[in-house]
Amino acid sequence: MKKMRIPLLIVLGIAILGIILGSFLDLQISQAIASPTNGLALTISAVCPTIGFGGLALIAGAWAGLGLKKDYPVWARVLFWIAGAACLGASIKYAGGEYFGVNGFAGSAPEIVGYLIAGVVLCGAAVGGYFLFKDTTNDKAWIVLLIAMAVMGLALLPGVSGLKAIFHRPRFRAISAHPEIPFFNWYQPNGDYQAQMTAAGLDSEEFKSFPSGHTCETSILLVTVVFMPLINPKLAKRQTLFFCLAAGAIVLVGFGRILAAAHFLSDVSMGAFLMVLLAFIANEVVIRLPILHPAEEE
């Protein structure tokens, strides 16, 4: 766990740098590169949440593995299965809606098709999670899973959803299509968004630019990478590689969301910052709780 300190701090520093640069360059960057019809950007926007929620689906598989262990009482095993079903259901729900919803290829196919695509991929990830973690010897693995879920839930719900409800920042695609909608910096709450929404004939989705939910969702994978070696120590050997791949996915989806005119640089940077900051704090807590990590394999 200690070896994740520096990688987490590096990603955290990059996210902070993005927020600072975005404070001065958000509008200029989006004016230079963003287009709501960019096919590559829409593909990234549609697919990357499934990759991110794959981290939650892996946790669902880990819960299933614990649910089959007779070392725990029946009531605990039932709760493990419920937790696993909730993780898998949430991952499919939130990832599936991105393919043919407003932030993906809207209208190209029925939205149910997106849920089917996400369902197949994420059920496969859950099966993979089961086989990765079913033989764990860490009897406190359930606590590790709860900590990982808490990080994800706090970043996405009070974090992303809470800030969206406070700031109501217009998306660049709304600003570029409706000149009457002004540009707001990320730190400026838009108190007049309802009047702007009515005047432009838009729905509330166009006033949820800050922070980026897609980037925060993709960062779920990073949280899984940080904590899962506590359940299967063999994964520690490739943890740095997995961490770099997860960080690369975060950068990719952040770039895609800017390119799609859905977010500004500060939006995507804050989305990653929320998840990574909570992951770093949780990692520091776990480091100080030796009961959660048995002897690690070198």
Number of strands: 0
Helix count from the secondary structure assignment: 11
Radius of gyration: 20 Å
The proportion of residues forming helix, as a percent range, comes to 55-70%
Strand content: under 5%
Topology as H/E string? HHHHHHHHHHH
* Biggest β-sheet description: none
Coarse morphology: globular
The computed structural class is mainly alpha
Short description:
The protein is mainly α. The protein has helices spanning 5-33, 39-67, 74-96, 111-133, 141-167, 172-177, 193-200, 213-218, 220-227, 239-259, 265-287.
What does this structure look like?
With about 300 residues, this protein is mainly alpha-helical. Helices cover about 70% and strands about 0% of the residues. It contains 11 helices and no strands. It has helices at about 5-35, 40-65, 75-95, 110-135, 140-165, 170-175, 195-200, 215-220, 220-225, 240-260, 265-285. The longest helix is centred in the N-terminal third of the chain and has 29 residues, at about 5-35. The chain is globular, with a radius of gyration of 20 Å. The model has no long low-confidence stretch (mean pLDDT about 95).
